[in-house]
Design a protein that fits this description.
alpha+beta, Nonspecific Lipid-transfer Protein, Chain A, 5 strands, globular
C-alpha cells in the first residue's frame, strides 16, 4: 500500500514537471493537496517550478489521487468535480483556471 502511494505521487510529480516545461508561467503559486501529499507549482518567475513541499500558496486545490487520474484521463469534468465537492478550491479561483495546461 505504501509503495502504491509513493508511485502515485511520483507519477503526479513527473506529469506536472513535464507539463510545466511547456506551459507559460501561471503568475502565482498553487498548492495541490492530493491524498495528504502537497505538490506546489511556483509560477511567479520566468518558468513554472514544481516543488514537493507544503508551502503557503495563492490557491490551494484539494482532491483524491483517483480524482486526479480521472481528470487527467478526461473521465471527469473539472467543473462537475468542484460542484459535487470532490475537488475543493481555496484562494485565487482565476489562478486555478490557468491549470488547464497541466491537465
Amino acid at each position: 500500500m505504501i509503495n502504491e502511494k509513493i508511485m502515485d505521487k511520483e507519477n503526479i510529480l513527473s506529469n506536472f514537471q513535464e507539463k510545466a516545461k511547456n506551459a507559460a508561467p501561471i503568475g502565482g503559486t498553487i498548492k495541490f493537496e492530493i491524498d495528504g501529499n502537497s505538490i506546489c507549482i511556483d509560477g511567479t518567475g520566468s518558468e513554472n517550478k514544481i516543488l514537493l513541499e507544503d508551502m503557503e500558496a495563492d490557491c490551494t486545490i484539494t482532491m483524491a489521487g483517483s480524482l486526479m487520474e480521472d481528470l487527467k484521463n478526461g473521465k471527469v469534468n473539472p467543473m462537475m468535480a468542484v460542484m459535487s465537492g470532490k475537488l475543493k478550491i481555496k484562494g485565487d479561483q482565476g489562478l486555478a483556471m490557468k491549470l488547464q495546461a497541466f491537465m
